Every structure is written in structure tokens, then in C-alpha cells.
Amino acid sequence: MASRVEHNRVETIAEFAPTSAFSRADAIRAAAVMPLLFVAFWPIFTGLYGSWFDDRTYMEHGILVVPAAAYMAWTKRQKLSQVPLQPSAWGLGLMAWGAVQATLSVVTSWAFLGRAAFLVSLVGCILALYGRRMVVELTYPLCTLMLMIAPPVFVYDRLTGSLQLLASRLGESVLEILGYSVMREGNILELVGIKLSVEEACSGIRSLFSILFMCTLYNFFFVRERYVKALILVMAVPIAILGNAGRIVATGMASQYNRELIQGVSHEMFGYISVVVAGIGCVALHMIILWIQKVRGTQHA
User: Fold this and answer.
1) pTM for this one?
2) Scanning 56, 65, 81, 297, which has its CA 20 to 30 A from the CA of 159?
3) Are 164 and 198 in contact (CB under 8 A)?
4) C-alpha 34: how far from its chain's center?
């Protein structure tokens, strides 16, 4: 009698315990549902893909975001295979929310709303198929996907205008410190014999997006502590601004010696160099943090 009660208890526990292995049935469900999700959002995908090559959005890095996020998830495949599978009905609610949001984006002609709706539906799909813990494990790759979406137009315009003015002021100040005669009127810097206009492309918005993406990748592969990851992402903004200000200063200095250096390919090279320098600055910031941690650990010991 006692053994029968114990056997029933084991069966009851097994019935409600989550499965811990990624079975073939789970793979079949994913293979069936995920393509449907992509088909449903295909019109939105085409617009998203086009935005990556739009000269007005400066989202060239967007084409690298999806492969990067997929690789992040792939590196966690062993840990993901051990996550208990607990499908949740809340995922269906998120998928419905994403569908409504996508419909509103079509009605209101607001592209950002529809593109964000795909991420909402993707999270809902994962939650419905695999459960909350799977979503938690994939949080970083899923958040990385947000970098492939350009911000709303009103946010973008305001951010661009602020960065243009800030870059112009910093460029003016540094050039004056270096001994160059410069006069600023709005976003126009007037040096001896030439006027430099800080356009939208020179505001730093392009380098800011690219550097945030670079820092996101660097954090995932090389940074362990969460507060250090957050600090690097936050500091990426002023580092990008300083890097762009350095580009303006270099352009202003070059204009006083050879005007051909501020046009065409040479001018574009200044932009790429500023992104590389800002990226190195973010890595250097991490090295400094590690050095401080090492010194504190030695003092404490």
C-alpha cells in the first residue's frame, strides 16, 4: 500500500515538473511557428531592411545586428539546452499585442511602431513555446536586436539637432585653444578663408549608433560584471561625442593647409577614423576599470 502511494506521488510530481530537455517536438514547433512569424511581418521587414541603407537614418550597422544576436544565442546553446521548458500562455498575449501594434503602425504610418511590434511578437513566441526562463537567458541577444531599429523620427531629429550644436561648440572651443582663429554662427564654423558647416551627417549620430553597437558586442564577449557593462554603454555616448568633436577639429585644421582633405573620400575617412578612435576609447575605459579593480583587490588583500 505504501509503495503504491509513493508511486502515485512520483507520477504526480513528474506530471507537473517542467521538461528539461529540448526535444524533437520542441524543434518541430519552433520550425512551424517561427516562419509564420516572419511571413506575418514580411512587409515590415522589407521597410526595416531598406532603412539600413537609407542615407537619412545612418543605420548601416543594422545589417550586422541580426547575425550578431544570432551568434550570441548560438554561443549559449549548451546552457539553453538545459533550461527547463515551461510554455506560458502569456506568450500568446504578447503575440496578440504585437499584432495589434503592427496594425496600428499601418493605420498611423508610423514605421517605428511596426518594427518594434516584431520584437514584441518574437518575445511572445519564445515565451509561448519555451517559457519565461528561456526569455531570461536570451535577454541580451533580444535587447541587441533593438539596435537594428532606427529611433522615432521626432526623437531622431531632436537628438541630431542637439548633437550638431554640441559638436559645433566643442569644435570651436578646441580650435581656439589650439590657436586657430574661428568664429561660430549656429552650426557653421568660419575659419580663415573657409566656412565649415556641421551637417546632420557630421553631428555624430552615425558614430553614436555604431559605437553603441560595438560596445554591445564587446560587453557580451569580454565584460562580466553587469555594472561595468552598463557603465561602458553609458560612457559610449560622451566618448562618441568627443570622437566626433575630434573629427571636426581635424577637419578644421586640415582646411587651413589643404582644402582637398575636407572633401570626398578624405572627408569620409575622418568619420571612419573617429569611430575607430571612439571604439578604442571604450576598450581603454574597460582596461582602466579592470586596473582599478585589480589595485583595490591588492590593497584589500
Assistant:
1) 0.78
2) 65
3) yes
4) 23
User: Are 113 and 80 contacting, i.e. CB atoms less than 8 angstroms apart?
Assistant: no
Q: How far is CA 219 from CA 215, 278, 285, in A?
A: 6, 15, 12
Q: How far does CA 258 lie from the centroid of its chain? A: 37
The grid cell for 210 is: 555604431
What percent of the chain has pLDDT above 90? 25
Distance CA 167, CA 173 (A): 10
Q: Of 82, 60, 47, whose CA–CA distance to 268 is shortest? A: 60
Residue 88 grid cell: 506560458
Tell me the residue type at 269.
M
DSSP 25-64: HHHHHHHHHHHHHHHHTHHHHHHHHHHTT-TTT--TTHHH
* Cβ–Cβ < 8 Å for 134, 22: no
Assess contact for 171 and 248: CB atoms under 8 A.
Answer: yes
DSSP notation for 260-286: GGGSHHHHHHHHHHHHHHHHHHHHHHH
Residue 190, C-alpha cell as written in the block? 568660419
Query: What one-letter code names the amino acid at 90?
Result: W
Q: Which residue has the cell 554662427?
A: 185
Amino acid at 199: E
For 191-238, write each residue's pLDDT tens digit: 777 777 666 555 567 778 888 899 999 999 999 898 999 999 999 888
Cell numbers that stand for 272 in this block: 571612419
Amino acid letter, 289: I
Nearest in space to 56 (alpha carbons), one of 145, 146, 160: 160
